[in-house]
Automatic annotation (TrEMBL):
Ranges that cross the membrane: 12-35, 47-67, 97-121, 133-155, 162-182, 228-244, 251-268
Name listed for the protein in its UniProt record: ABC transporter permease
Organism: Cohnella soli
Keywords: Membrane, Transmembrane, Transmembrane helix
């Protein structure tokens, strides 16, 4: 009864505080404005991601609300009266906690109402209602409760002139704004404090992140555990001020609680790598792989070893916070030997390898290189059976956890016969080697952890897929919807619900462009595969669109949330360079200098645009990429590069209608580009010069 009466009094007092109404109204108004702006751009996920600063503001308002609740009692000396009454302190504690919780529930319900009204008006898919509820509870409701509890705790014993300045520091430390501050401190002290920043931050990990259509809203289990830990801390600190215990009981209570909280915080922080980082953390998408492969050095023993082919894979995957795999392989070596080399992403650590007779095989992992050494020499054309167990974290580019999966076949997430690394740092960017076997391999795939999995293999039972493929295995899971368009199966993120209207046009454009490029360059003619996966794969170039992979049995189309506009998907300015990059991508072209690849792709795209002018919205009045390069070289006084581009432009402008001559020009260029020898600007001058002479 005391708690109930205390709660009623607290509620009456709370609604009289200006901080309460500010906490209720201000975030809701801002949220409505953000929703209207983002949904006008067809970005429902971005509407929530962009609420990072609402969270920061809400933390401040509820921190001050909790502080003012307690300071009121201190300033009026009511706390002395309450202390003298039996059981009053604990009743006040629970009264405050319950009243704060009720206030946050009211705020949360108001947010849901605003959100669902906007979702209905803009016809956002029903999927977003469920995940939005989880998101608001995780990033709004729980943090606001924690902030109010800490405010009440600090108000119960702090009383000095600089108290509001101190509260300001607490406010910044507990919100998304702490990222920039801790990053600056880390740079000055040369001590990585980003883990501390992540653990203190009650809001989004990266307030500047764009919504990832394939990954969805960041709702990983560890984020819930982190917030739950802070709730326990909040209740603990509040109880220390209000529970009436003997000195001995207090000492025991404090010791046990602090030991538990400290040990659990340390344990959980060490596992925070499983949360996908998108900001400036060491393990983030922006930094991790680029830093690693920039420092990549070929293995000491990097010579080619005995050639072999994989006849079959039987892969059993468990996807929770990381990848756990049990892979059985049948290999057929073409020569006698005792060593075999695979490529496997370096953070996937092999636990053991056993042969078909149950013997443990000696192995070593050096970066992405996995070397097996057999106890006895094997014979050519004799089938070897291996069972390999490994686990670890996937690349930040290619997530694989309990929330979503994006493991394209060209990424070495399973052991593939290769001596090349999974990726290569190339000037200012990362590019990926096509790691999958280019010949038919029999695959069996079993996956635990997801109900809905999308792959290029055929379903063969519950959580089992089988099939023969010369393009490896691609796996996708998460917020994905499937569509059937003109006989093709298309899998795309649910958030791109407007983009689906342009699928038919896109397939037609993609087929036309693919056929034309194959004819122009004399490539083997292949039909467009009937399975297409739209996913947020990373681009293979920062200078021109290169976000498409076309393989024999499936294609992967790189997109982001901006594609929900629809028109961007069929933009030839983006499609042509992406398709030509996909059709000419191999080990040697990847190893060429980036500016050589760029010149070839952009020069061909320029010729294509002159023959087939686009009428798409995003292509009208667009400056060709090659001319943008010319402007760049001219601005930076790069006379040699500028001259080369000028010659290519002049040659194309003079000869673009002579198809045979231009085909010969680009075929010769491509024939040199795919050779191991490095091209340079001298080659460009000689190529244009020889063709002009002809």
């Amino acid at each position: 009864m005391k708690i109930l009466n205390s709660m009623k009094i607290e509620i009456i007092l709370i609604i009289r505080r200006i901080w309460f109404w500010a906490a209720m109204i201000v975030p809701c108004l801002i949220f409505g404005l953000i929703l209207n702006d983002k949904l006008n751009m067809f970005d429902p996920g971005g509407a929530l991601i962009s609420s990072a600063y609402i969270v920061q503001a809400g933390i401040f308002l509820f921190l001050m609300l909790g502080f003012e609740l307690v300071r009121r009692e201190k300033n009026s000396n009511c706390d002395e009266v309450i202390t003298a009454m039996p059981g009053a302190k604990s009743a006040k504690l629970w009264g405050k906690l319950i009243s704060i919780t009720l206030g946050i529930i009211v705020f949360t319900v108001l947010s849901f109402i605003i959100l669902f009204v906007f979702y209905s008006v803009y016809q956002v898919p029903a999927y977003f209602r469920g995940v939005s509820v989880k998101y608001i509870i995780l990033y709004w409701s729980i943090p606001f409760f924690i902030a109010a509890s800490f405010g009440a705790y600090l108000g119960s014993f702090l009383n000095f002139r600089g108290i509001y300045v101190f509260l300001g520091f607490v406010w910044i430390a507990l919100g998304p704004l702490n990222i920039g501050i801790f990053e600056s401190i880390s740079l000055l002290t040369q001590v990585d404090l980003m883990k501390v920043s992540e653990w203190l931050n009650l809001g989004q990990t990266d307030p500047h992140a764009l919504y990832d259509s394939s990954y969805g809203l960041p709702l990983e289990g560890l984020r819930w555990i982190q917030k739950g830990w802070w709730v326990v801390v909040a209740i603990f600190v509040m109880s220390t001020r209000y529970l009436q215990l003997s000195k001995l009981k207090k000492a025991v209570y404090y010791s046990l609680a602090i030991m538990f909280l400290a040990s659990s915080a340390f344990g959980l922080t060490s596992k925070f790598d499983v949360v996908r980082a998108t900001a400036h953390e060491i393990n983030s998408v922006m930094k991790y792989d680029y830093t690693y492969y920039s420092n990549y050095r070929p293995a000491k023993n990097s010579e080619q070893t005995t050639a072999f082919k994989v006849d079959s894979y039987d892969i059993h995957l468990k996807l929770k916070s990381q990848i756990s795999a049990d892979v059985q392989m049948k290999l057929i070596p073409s020569q006698d030997g005792n060593k075999i080399i695979f490529t496997l992403y370096h953070d996937l650590k092999v636990k053991k390898i056993i042969d078909g007779e149950g013997r443990f095989i000696k192995f070593s992992q050096d970066q992405d290189r996995l070397e097996l050494e057999f106890p006895n020499r094997y014979k050519a054309n004799h089938t070897l059976v291996l069972n390999m167990v490994y686990e670890g974290l996937s690349s930040p580019y290619f997530f694989a956890n309990s929330q979503a999966v994006m493991l394209p076949s060209y990424f070495a997430w399973y052991p593939v016969p290769s001596t090349y690394p999974a990726m290569k740092a190339k000037e200012i960017q990362i590019v990926r080697y096509p790691s999958f076997p280019r010949y038919d391999v029999q695959y069996t795939l079993t996956i635990d952890g997801f109900k809905s999995i999308y792959t290029n293999l055929q379903a063969a039972g519950d959580s089992v897929w089988k099939g023969s493929s010369s393009a490896g295995i691609s796996i996708f899971a998460g917020p994905i919807s499937s569509h059937s368009v003109g006989g093709a199966s298309i899998y795309s993120p649910i958030s791109l619900y407007k983009m689906t209207n342009t699928f038919k046009t896109f397939l037609s454009e993609l087929r036309n462009i693919t056929n034309q490029i194959q004819e122009d360059l004399g490539l083997s003619a292949h039909e467009l595969p009937q399975k297409l996966f739209f996913a947020t794969i990373p681009p293979e170039s920062r200078q021109y669109p290169a976000n498409i992979w076309i393989m024999k049995d499936h294609a992967i189309i790189g997109i982001n949330q901006q594609y929900n506009d629809g028109e961007l998907l069929v933009s030839e300015t983006a499609l042509v360079p992406a398709v030509i990059s996909a059709l000419t991508r191999d080990i040697n072209t990847i190893n060429q200098r980036e500016e050589m690849n760029t010149m070839f792709v952009e020069a061909y795209s320029y010729w294509y645009s002159k023959r087939f002018p686009s009428t798409q919205k995003y292509d009208i009045d667009r400056t060709p990429l090659l001319k943008l390069d010319l402007n760049y070289y001219e601005y930076n006084n790069m006379s040699r590069q500028k001259k080369a581009v000028q010659q290519i432009l002049q040659y194309t402008d003079e000869n673009w209608e002579e198809n045979d001559k231009m085909k010969s020009f680009f075929r010769e260029w491509y024939s040199h580009l795919k050779q191991p020898e490095q091209l340079d600007w001298e080659y460009i001058f000689s190529l244009v010069g020889s063709k002009e002479a002809d």
